[in-house]
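**User:** Here is a favour to ask of a fellow structure person. Please take any protein you like and set down a full record of it. No explanation is needed for now; the record alone will do.

**Assistant:**
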Amino acid sequence: MCATTDLCDFHNIFCDVVFEWRRKENDEDHRCTKGNAEKVFPLIYLLIHAASMYTIEAFVLLEKQFIDSAGYKYKEVQSASCHKTLEVWDVRNGNEGHGE
């Protein structure tokens, strides 16, 4: 468009742009609901269930957090009625550093 575009042309261009946005959004909605996310751990029920419930993008974020958390171990140090203290350490790459 340019400054001399009349109102009818502007309306037609605007409608074309909105139609294209909606088409892309519908395609993405369909891909997220009907598509299959590739799973790193295909036999873990938690991830199978999450893949069926979440969009692909949300599932990928969850799976990344799941994988990142798999490299840690913990033990309970202290427990109260509604408060627990855990000692957590990183076991990836031989790192045995402890932190609370």
